[in-house]
């Protein structure tokens, strides 16, 4: 299987056995008190709840799918070549930027394999950039941060490790900064829309007993409206019957970065 297929198991694992967890009970209580959930709110609870969320609680396991990890990504399967190729690109970008790159923010750094291979490549290809670099690893998973600290301690560059969500991270004054991420966008909470002949419907999460089910709604949440406005501005159209993954979290994050990036590259 390809890495993208592996990753699909992560959300399935996060939502498995819903009827038997305290998080499931909180989801049901929220639906009962406030009505059907926007899918982005449901996904955020499953993936990023501080106690039971798949990523934020430390449950996620990235690595070797044959060793019963949840999924693998290209950096693991193609190490060290994936990170080495990225290092060559980073070096070219730095030379093209006035003053060069001085800081890299790696969002959703995972188990640190990409970060290590990238720095290893820079150490060989561009020692000057490597020597001045401040490398910042950003992740919501405490286990991943511990792994990143361990693997990046083998490098001599200045490093910082921040436990935070990429969605909530306060991007400010990003001078001479390069921001990278690998397979992060598809892990951000999104809403589901259905295009019909009469317009759009939002697929929300409802509850019947212990079972969660989809419920189409004609009223759209603000995230769905933001996504559709951005899609229209970009000239994107959808066919009747098409289900749309409306990732407003990605749009907000990229807008925050763009406003803050005074000199650098995403």
Explain this structure:
With 266 residues, this protein is an alpha/beta fold. The protein folds into 3 domains: 3-67, no CATH class; 74-187 and 254-265, Vaccinia Virus protein VP39 (Rossmann fold), CATH 3.40.50.150; 191-250, no CATH class. The protein has 10 helices and 10 strands. The strands form 2 sheets. Strands 1, 6, 7, 8 and 9 form a 5-stranded antiparallel beta sheet that branches. Strand 3, helix 8 (142-152) and strand 4 (158-163) form a beta-alpha-beta unit. Helix 5 crosses helix 6 (113-125). Mean pLDDT is 85; it is low at 1-8.
Quick tags:
3 domains; alpha/beta; Rossmann fold; 10 helices; disordered N terminus; single chain; five-stranded antiparallel sheet; about 270 residues
In short:
By secondary structure, the chain is of the alpha/beta class. It has helices spanning 3-15, 22-34, 39-48, 74-77, 81-96, 113-125, 127-132, 142-152, 222-233, 248-260; strands at residues 37-38, 103-107, 134-139, 158-163, 175-181, 191-196, 199-208, 211-217, 243-246, 263-265.
Determine and state the CATH class of the largest domain. Answer: Alpha Beta
Q: What are the low-pLDDT stretches, counting only 5+ consecutive residues below 50?
A: 1-8
The total count of helices amounts to 10
Mean pLDDT over all positions:
85
**Residue share in helix:** 40-55%
Q: Using the 3D structure, state the CATH architecture of the largest domain.
A: 3-Layer(aba) Sandwich
Rg is 20 Å
List how many beta strands DSSP finds. 10
Distance between the termini: 29 Å
Topology, element by element:
Blueprint: H1 3-15, H2 22-34, E1 37-38, H3 39-48, H4 74-77, H5 81-96, E2 103-107, H6 113-125, H7 127-132, E3 134-139, H8 142-152, E4 158-163, E5 175-181, E6 191-196, E7 199-208, E8 211-217, H9 222-233, E9 243-246, H10 248-260, E10 263-265
Parallel strand pairs: 2-3, 2-5, 3-4, 5-10
Antiparallel strand pairs: 1-7, 6-7, 6-9, 7-8
Helix pairs in contact: 5-6
